[in-house]
């Protein structure tokens, strides 16, 4: 009894969940069944048979419709499956292509990296080689320097801010060869001491200019320790605005250089590059007119772009100035021979 109640309950739930067309069909079928049953019960065999035939026809038509609907659903399902397979295949191909591309790119990147590392190793080896060769050049120069002079006090270090031994060696060679009476040096330090010893040999004088009171004091102390005060004078000339070729620069106070004339050798090793762009360019605008009829101009650090440019500008602006063959080091030597036209840079 309880299972019948459960069955009826489930049936009621299903009936309630039917769509409107399903409800209509079910109602028609139920009415037909009722009609067959009542016609058979009341002895109307003909009506009962007709209703039964109509019922059968309806059921057949329903089955036909259902089978067409199922085959439609089946076809749609197959199409969906085919499309899904196509999409999966495309996706798979794309994944394979992407992985392959990444593999090739990674291979290329690995090759690039290997090449860069190999090149880096080769260059650093080459760099070490160059450094060792440069060092041995400086050591050779240092030996030659100390054979030329026996200092009376410890010599200050060369290199870095000071001239390198190779530059000092060439400078002293030119001093011994050309015997300048007046040497002016822009930027004092180690070179001041070496120049002092070289000039003491043949009676020349050195005026060394420094913009920095501390470094000027230090160089003065060195000159005193080496007993070169009779040969060397260290002058302080703070940086001021100087106009050269129509442009302002920070350069030595020209007042401190006002008395200088007939300079036989001008060594330009200051102001330091950190004081401003083209820091050394004004040197010849101010001092070209104070050079002796025949003079030598030396500019240090011409391994640097700004100094190389300054040399080219001076040669084009100062008549009688030509570049000499460089023997050693990173400086440039220029010969000056007074031209008839006055210098106006
Ligand atoms: C290139 S240095 C001159 C060096 C000098 N001609 C020599 O060979 O020793 C130019 C100026 O830099 C300053 N100077 C010197 N040594 C320095 C250092 N170690 N650090 C910063 N400035 C320095 C001084 O004022 C000097 O006049």
Automatic annotation (TrEMBL):
> What highest taxon heads this organism's lineage?
Bacteria
InterPro entries hit by this protein: SAM-dependent_MTases_sf
Molecular function terms, GO-annotated: methyltransferase activity
Q: Give the coiled coil ranges.
A: none
Q: Where are the transmembrane segments?
A: 21-40, 46-66
Alphabetical keyword list: Membrane, Methyltransferase, Transferase, Transmembrane, Transmembrane helix
A GO biological-process term: methylation
Protein name as annotated: Putative O-methyltransferase YrrM
Organism of origin is Actinoplanes digitatis
